[in-house]
Amino acid sequence: MALSLFQQLQLIWDYHLLNQEIKKSDAIFVLCSYDLRVAEHAAQLYLDGYAPLLIFSGAQGRTTEGLFHLSEAETFANVAKDMGVPSSAILVETKATNTGENIFFTQDLLKEKNIKVESLLLVQKPYMERRLLATFLKNWNDIEFCITSPNISFINYPTDDVTFDHVASIILGELHRLKIYPTLGYQEAQDIPDDVWEAFENLTQLGFDEYLLPE
Predict the structure, then answer these.
(1) What mean pLDDT comes out for the span 184-212?
(2) Domain spans of the chain?
(3) CATH class, 18-148 region
(4) What is the pLDDT of residues 131-174, one digit of tens each?
């Protein structure tokens, strides 16, 4: 029986999720975006004692230009402060515009501050967990790390500001990057099951192609 549109999207959403066990770490490293629920999740992890340091990284990207008055990192940091995280426990990196830069600029910031970390708790949006794994394995694989995201289901992820069609298009864009970026040296290759890629091809033909890489 053929899968429905929603079932195919759910298949891809589930593939992006890693469902890793989170561990106490030297720092919580947050890759910022438009989704303030990620900031809230990271701040709660700090408040729950998972790490003594909270790092926010992000300038402004395609989805946040004009949305925030400050950089993504500064906006996320303000969310954390409002939740009770002290400023002294927060580092902010405001130049990164992609995942690779999140890593490289944060490495530089830690060196500048003479802060050594041997383990990181990485925080991202749910549909970016796998690509974060692939990018870290390529670019920062000499430390221990685990990955987490807000516990939000696919059906509940859209909001008044983030439509269903946007979420559908962007999770396909993330899968396309998992396919293409290893060939460019940006990340480690991930095994993409045949049924997941078949769903990708079906859905892009239906027009969910806004965030695909250019041919």
Answers:
(1) 97
(2) 5-13+155-205, 18-148
(3) alpha beta
(4) 999 999 999 999 999 999 999 999 999 998 889 999 999 999 99
